[in-house]
Zinc finger, SWIM domain protein (Pyrobaculum islandicum), 95 residues
Amino acid sequence: MLCKDVAKRAVYKLGEEVYIESVEKRGAWLVAICYVRSQTRREECYQVVLKLKLGTRYFIGHCECPDFKYRGGPCKHIVKAKVALREYMKLKRRV
């Protein structure tokens, strides 16, 4: 997906690297849809879906990048999305 399209819908962005489209609570989980800019193709963003168990550090992440599809496990895009979500949650608590 193109980053310029994602940037228009974002509720929060961390620099020009990570865009959070939505964050919602589903039962005991917090689900966030994020887009993280590719390092090789700068105009392209990969979708990252994060599910965090509220009150714990446990999370599940899924990314569309080729690295995640090939290796599995957390990729650098998931890590960046988690950092952005943490910053977004800090801002929400202050307000």
